[in-house]
Amino acid sequence: MRLNTGQETFDMIKIGALVSGGGTNLQAIMDAIDKGGINAEVAAVVSSKEGAYALERAKSRGIENTVIRKKNFKTAEEYELALAEYFKERDIDLIVLAGFMVILGTTFVNQFENRIINIHPALIPSFCGEGFYGLHVHEAALKAGVKVTGATVHFVTAECDAGPIILQKAVDVMDNDTPETLQRRVMEQAEWVIYPKAVRLFADNKLEIADGIVKRR
Ligand code: GAR
Fold it and tell me: Are 166 and 159 in contact (CB under 8 A)?
């Protein structure tokens, strides 16, 4: 855990990732760390599901990983306490939601205030909130006929997809797009680009939140 001394700090931060699926965003972050320039390490990966390919990505790098399933707990609070304990025991500085399909409530979020970030596959405040996840987001964008969509990295608050926005990137929609082709373009052109950038900004202590708005220091 790094201390806020009021000065710029350059010690390496420890990232904990929450995943549910393929983990391409986790991969983009790990690749960017490998290339250098991000003062961070992915120290632990927790999946909401057995068999998520994201776990294989963690294993192949020797990163500690586990599955914590919501349905194994009596209440959402107990589940969130278990998740929080896992990350606290490992001194995690930043929690990265990378294709994580569980909505987190105050029990978890309040314990890591301004230290949880998420990638959403649309330009928030469009096509976000409960029910808008994965391919559903792109189906909704195509149904609405928007000509531009994109991705957003934001801080996580207890209100789904409503926390302070860190970075966004726009992507064109094509006439012949399917949800799958649009999802792929949004990942390639936006998600895998802005998520590592946002992690870098956080690791370099460059993000400041005032009145719900993110400013770069
Ligand atoms: C990504 O498009 C990500 O933005 C989205 O799931 C996809 C899978 O990500 N996340 C959400 O919809 C969260 N609400 P992955 O390949 O990193 O697992």
Answer: no
Question: What are the residues facing 32 on neighbouring strands?
Answer: none
Q: How far is the CA of 19 from the centre of ligand 1 (A)?
A: 9
pTM of structure:
0.95
Question: Of how many residues is the chain composed?
Answer: 217
Verify whether ligand 1 is closer than 6 Å to residue 102 (CB atom).
no
Residue 150 CB less than 6 A away from ligand 1: no
Please list, residue by residue across 180-204, b when 16 or more beta carbons sit within 10 angstroms of its beta carbon and e when fewer do.
eebbebbbebbbbebbbebbbbbbb
pLDDT of the chain, 217 residues: tens digit per residue:
444 544 455 589 999 999 999 999 999 999 999 999 899 999 999 999 999 999 999 999 999 999 999 999 999 999 999 999 999 999 999 999 999 999 999 999 999 999 999 999 999 999 999 999 999 999 999 999 999 999 999 999 999 999 999 999 999 999 999 999 999 999 999 999 999 999 999 999 999 999 999 999 9
Distance CA 27, CA 69 (A): 22
Ligand 1 center–CA 180 separation, angstroms = 12
Whether 24 lines ligand 1, by a CB cut-off of 6 Å, is yes
**Bond preceding residue 125 cis, omega within 30 of 0:** yes
| Ligand 1 near 21 CB (within 6 A) | yes
Residue in 3, 66, 10 with CA at minimum distance from that of residue 40:
10
Could you tell me the sign of the dihedral formed by the alpha carbons of 85, 87, 92, 98, in that order? negative
